[in-house]
Every structure is written in structure tokens, then in C-alpha cells.
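Hey, can you fold this?
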Amino acid sequence: MTIKADGQKWSSKASQEVRNEAYARKAKENAPVAFSGQTNLHLKDFFFKVLSGSAQGILIGVLPSAVMKYIIQYSGLGTTAFGANLSAILTLFTSLIPFLIGMAVALQFKMKSLDVGVVAIATAVASGSIKWAVAPTGFVNPVTGLKSVAPANVYIASGAGDVINAMIVSAIAVFVTWLVARYLKGFGSVAIILSPIIVGGGVGLIGKSIAPYVGDITTWIGNVVETFTKLAPIPMAMLIAMAFAIIIITPVSTVGIALAISLSGIGSGAAAMGVVATTIVLLINSWKVNKPGVTVAIALGAMKGMMPSVFAKPVTMLPFLLTAAISGIPVALFNIQGTPTTAGFGYIGLVSPIQSMVKDAAVPSSVMNNFINPFVAIIAWLVIPVIAGFIAQFVFSKLLKLYTPMDFQQDL
């Protein structure tokens, strides 16, 4: 952005004015573009920002609870007041996923703080993570122990809600905010009053009214996947594993997809195994050509950081697919299961392997009804994927020479 002086170029008053104009032009070009009614909403860019923001919101809400769940449980912290409170707080993150989605989507569009809050709240109230009902007179508050003297709304945090509906509502809220900014000048000086009521409340009501229909569609998709996994468990486990092996290396969130279609049971186990397959292949190649920190980051879950290398040479996805296909077979043979929350994790925090072994009272039998022993877990989650990874490496790198480890060279 700096403009170098050349001899006496800026010595005169006229030349100084030229310099100032040049600086002003550069500053304007480099200034961040704030969201307004003049913002151009191109369909492709709009969709990508909603998708990207949703992925960020989902990860913020899911990761803390999922990663810390078993650490708190098996470290003994769960029996202390500190551990119990920390667990409750992290669990609450999950119920705030729709709010986080709305917030992250709004920030993708560079909205001001008022609009960010409005979009976030509209998304949260419409997605079912917070439910409410009218409690009759005499209802005993479980926190205070006091009885209500009149009918009043009671609000209950209820899981992550419908992620797909959250994405739809956040998109609607952004579009309505744009319309208001374009044609009503953002409500002008009364925006602080009207925007939360009209945009927040209005879009929230629209989202709540469409929620049952969106929920029916997502439930149907989940049921279709479950039906196919029951009819043809091995082929479906292989296909799901292969799909998630590719998704994990794209900007799309594996956790978001799994939550969106309520992927559970064998489908969840296969999805997590697909993430594991990609992790193994990246580790096999990364340790040869990258700094140790990069390889460690991949092991801890930074697979998406390898996108530039992978997309620069798409043929490098072939070992992901083969490793995932082979690794998906034991998922069906050993009936390895998971929940929608653990489906997209793989080795991250050992969430998926632990969930497949440990019976959790909070997980109903309709979601998971089989748990494997540690020996089977080591074979399925570690031994077979590693062997499959080296087979894929031999076939595509050594035998067919389609790529070399240098193609995975990357700084994170």
C-alpha cells in the first residue's frame, strides 16, 4: 500500500495532492467491505458463505463437548463440582449450535453487531435446540424450588436441534436483512428496536413454522441411509466411508453433514472410519516430506489444512477412497456404531473409537445398540486402516506412480 517517492516527485503542492489522492484510493480499495443494501448477493457466493459459516458454528458447538466428554468422565473430574459444572457448560455448547451457526453465517457476510445478533437469535429460536411450553400455575421450578403463581413459559435446552433448518433460517435472515438495508435503509435510527422485532422475530416465526417439514425431510434421508445399511451393510459402509474420506478434505463439515441427516448406527461408524482413512494416508505421506509439526497437526485433526496440496493434484484422493473402502468392511462385519455427533470425528480426541466401545446412558438404543470390545476396536480402528493405507500407497504411488509423497508437501 506504500507509494515510494521518486526524486522530487512529491516536492510541489500539486504533487502532494496527487500523493494524497493515491493514498486515499489505496485505503478505499483495501478497506473491508461492510454488509449493506448495496452488497451484491451472488447465488454461488451466498451459498458458500452460508455453508462455510454453518460449518464453523457446528464445530464451535460440537468440538468442546465431544473432545472433553470422556476426559472428564474417566479422569475423575466428573465427580467434582468443577468437573460437573464444566461438563454442563460444554454440553450447553451443543444446544447453542443454531445460535453459533447464525452468528458465524452473519460474520461471513461482514454484518454489523446488531445484524449479527438478530440473525443468530432468529436462527436459534427456529431450530428446535431450545424448546418451550406453558407451565401451569403451581409448577415447581427445579432450580429455585419455587412454585409459579401464574402460567408461564418454560424453556428447555434440547440437543443441537435441526442443523439443516438452522442453515435455511440463517440464509433467510441474511436475505431479509439485505432487503431491509436496501429498500428501508436498515430501519434508520430505530433499527435497534425494529430489527430484532421484525427480522429476528419474523424470520424466527417463519423458521419455526417450516421446521416440522424440514425435519421430516432430514429424518427421511436418515431413514433411507439406515435402511440401505441394513439391507446391504458392507457396500453401504464402504460407500459412506469413501464419501466421508473425501468430505473431510473439503471445506464441507463432516460433523455438519452427519448432524444434518442424523447419521447414526453403522452409518456413523462408517463415516468416522472414512475420516480415519484419510488421516492415515495423509500421515503416511506427510512424515516423509513435511515438518514434524505438520504431521502432528494432521494426527490431531487438521486434515482440511491439506486442501491446497490435495486439490492441486486430485489424483491424490484415490488412496483416500481405497483405504476408506477397505476400512469400511470391518465396520459392517463387527457392527461398529456411533452417533450423529461422533460420525465426523475419526481420531480427533479419540471420540469415535471410544463411543463405539463405551455404552452411554444418554444415547438411546435407537441410535446405538451395539458396542465392541477393546480388542476389536484396535483391529478395526487402527490395524486395518493402517494396513489399507499402506496397500493404497503401494498401488497408487509405487506401482502406478500416480503421485509421490512430495505432492503432499504443505505448510499449515
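Oh, and this one too while you're at it.
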Amino acid sequence: MSQQEFDVLIIGAGISGTALFYELARYTDIKNIALIEKYNAPATLNSKGTSNSQTIHCGDIETNYTLEKAKKVKRSADMVVKYLLLQNAQNQFMFAHQKMALAVGESECEYMKKRYEEFKELYPYIEFFDKAKIKQIEPKVILGEDGVNDRAENICAMGVEAGKAFTTVDFGKMSQSLIEQAQKQNKNTFVAFNQEIVSIEKKDGIFILRTHTYQEYRAKAVVVNAGAHSLYLAHKMGFGLDKSCWPVAGSFYLTKQKLLNGKVYMVQNPKLPFAALHGDPDLLADMNTRFGPTALAIPKLERYKGLKSVPEFFQTLQLDTTVIKIAFKILKDPTVRNYIFYNYLFEIPFINKNLFTKGAKKIVPSLKASDIYYAQGFGGVRPQVIDKTRGELMLGEASIVEDGIIFNMTPSPGATSCLGNAERDAKLICKYLGVNFKEDQFASELL
């Protein structure tokens, strides 16, 4: 058994883990930092470009965000843009596409007008689009089912035209960039792939981590950024037992051509805890339109990685009467129940395309089932956390902070919030270790 010792060890080389790796290397006095990843490359799961919508979720068109949440998310989103500008990533893996939040029908249009007035101060670049403007910039959204005449409903939107704000990032490439930049700092930055951490224990103030290959690492502090597996590892240490994990997988459908010029989001149903369907130009599919995501509860912590995470799911679910009561509470609402039911149908061949097209027609009325195909291998897993003490599903990031160790579960917008979450964790780790966080340098570069 070989052994290595570090000041801080990060588990997980997705966008969250690599963001922290970079910030610790650049903005702290910590000298020895390790990043350990179970697979053979960074960002192979939820940070991969095919696993998410490649969107900088800054809160301007996400109608499920309150103004307060938008302010918080915007700060982190701006940090992503500033980091990538420092790396000259614009038009390489960061892009300024057109985007809008679309309202269909009188009630949604009234809602959108009020939202625009409420949010325009926070987002000075945002514009209000009437039907004529939408026809100019997104003609497929205006055309009716016949593809010739304009749709009958009143529609409007709030958004931004192409080139006026950065909207799109390949977070997989950003993860690789963060590792490369961290390794350029004058620190001992160690990165290991194909090393799955299977146990963590704390002995005499030092964390001892063992891998599936019997490698042993030691660290003064540990941060676990391993998606749904963060809670799995926390439970193995006896932490976070008041929380359960309900993994939700998102699937997508791709079109055979470019139907939309930019991102088109819809008004969120307030009863649904998951993002409304939207259309995006896909960076990895020749900019053809990708519709989604669906929301499918699955008994796995990882998707497209075999059945290994099925027993790990059941260990992390911690099924008991409290979890069952919360599940029944969620399913009691017919809107939520029907939504979940239809999302399972979206996975069934022969009927899935026709059913999915009905919902996507709200964005592109002329869309036909023959225009789309199921995006095999696309979509990731978001670890929705159940708080058994409060008796509810937690929406947004969840963390467990213990003495010298942090476990992060980051559902959407985890990628957009990566540098903001990393700032929080870096400061906690610096305080624990009694070292300096370089506030002035951090602020000058990222804030």
C-alpha cells in the first residue's frame, strides 16, 4: 500500500471539484493540494457537455428563480464569465448566444411583463420582446403548426440578443481548464485519475482515505464534490443521516437541423420542482436544437455507468417511513404526479417522441415527431436531497460541513455556481487550517 499526504484533498474532478482545486491553488497559502477522480478523465459525469444544457444559469431567464436567488446566482455566474475571459475562452468554449424566457397566452404574458419590470435593474442588458420582435429573431417560435401562418396566441419574452451577454459554456472543457491553471501555480498540485475513494476515516486529526486499488491518501482537510456519491460517502462516515438522496435523471431530444437561433426557456410551473422544458443550440451537435430536459427519478447514483451504483442508491436513500411520507406528499398533487408519469413515458420507444413533441410545440408549434430523435447517452443525474428533519425535498445545493471535511451535493445550477461554491469552501478550509485566503487578488480577478 502506497501513501501520500496533503494539506487538502478534493474528491471529484467535475466542475465543482476542479473549481475548488483552482481556487485553493491560486488564492490561498495552502501548499499541498490533491484532486482525486474515480474515472479516467475530468468531467465524465454531470459536468460533461452532453449531460447538461451548457447554460450559464444567471437568473435572467430562469423563471423558477426569485429575485433573491437570482442575485445570489448572478454573482457566481459573473465569476464564471470573468474566469473564462481571463483564459480567452470566448468563442472557444464560452459563447454569447441569444436567449429568452418565452410567455405564451395572456396570463403568462402578464406575468412576464411584471417579471421584466422586477428584474431589469439587476440585468440592465435584458430586453422585453413583443411578438414582432420574436418573429424577427426566432421565426420558428412565431410560426403556427402549419409552418406558414403565425401562431394565434399572444406571446412575449424577456431576453437578450446574440453577442450582448455570455450564455453558453462547455463545462467539461472548463473543468479541464481549471485543472491546467491550478497546475501552473507555484504549489504542489497532485491529480490522480482512476482512483475511487471507498472509505474515509479521521484519526488523530488526519483524514485517511483509501481507494479501490488499496492506495492510501492522508490529508488535513477533505472536500467531497462527488455528486450523489457525496452523501453516500457522508453516510459511510456517519454524517448527514438526516438526509436522503433522490437522484433525478434528465434526458434530451435532438433535432435534425437548427430550429432555434438561441436558447428559448418557458415559464416555470410553480408546482413543479424541476426546470421547465427548453430549447438550446447544442455545442456538441453542430448547433442543432436540443430540447429537454425530462425529469426521471431513477434508482442509480450515476447514469450510463452500469448497475454498480444501484445498491449505493439504496444505501443513500435510507428508506424509512419519513422518506415514504415525503414521497407521498410530493405525489399527492396531481400536477406533479402526472408530470412524473409522463417523464417515464418519454423514455419508452415508439411512443416517446410523439408525447414529447406535444410539450415542445409550445416553443416551436410546427415541430413534428419526425423532426426529433432521442439523444442517446445525453443527460446526467441531479442528486435531489430529502431533508428528513424538515420533511421536504431540498431544492438547490446541499452541503454537510463537519470538522475539517465538507460534503457537497450540487444539483442545477451547480455548474454555474461552481466558483461561488468553491469560494465558500476555500474560505472554510482556510479558516480550519489557519491559513490566508487572498481576498484582494480574488476580488480583482473574479468579482
